[in-house]
Amino acid sequence: MVEVLDLKFKELISAEEIQARVDDISNQLNTKYEGKNPIFLGILNGSFLFIADIFKKLYIPCEVSFLKVNSYQNTSSTGKMKELIGLNQSIEGRHIVILEDIVDTGRTLDFILKTLEIHKPASISVATLLHKPEATLIPISLDYVGFEIQNQFVVGYGLDYNGFGRNSSSILIKVDD
Ligand code: IMP
Fold first, then answer.
1. Is CATH 3.30.380.10 correct for 14-151?
2. Mean pLDDT of the chain
3. 128-138: per-residue pLDDT in tens?
4. Active-site residue 6, yes or no?
């Protein structure tokens, strides 16, 4: 059992299992994107370890850049607004691979895809370390999924609970008291 702030977690996916899937996905990306000079767009903060581990295994010519999604309350409406920060190079005509930590409801990824499409890339594909199919409300095609997991809160390997828990090399799942 591992405690992160006031919650208890146990190991769900070991560091070795993660690295094996990272190797599989990197191999697929090396094959699919050979000669395409893709730009990998890593979504911070939760993906930082996934981005780094994938990127180290790529041997094709490619670039990496980092984006962040800010959520804020719009004073004139009740809904949460989202803003994509960090897109400071042209992606027009380029092949894009989004690297995400987890797809939960799918709202964040849906927003990212819609925002990037405006900039007319040649293609966009998505690699996510984790997917919670039962929680996903917006159907999005995910090209590379590390692991499908149950609809429970997880931390570790970059994912956090109120900022903590990112520094676990395995994925930990919340357990009830
Ligand atoms: P979505 O918009 O509901 O798909 O949520 C995506 C974002 O919510 C992820 O990029 C994470 O930052 C966060 N998130 C969703 N589920 C979890 C979880 O189980 N642990 C930690 N963060 C999560």
1. no
2. 96
3. 999 999 999 99
4. no
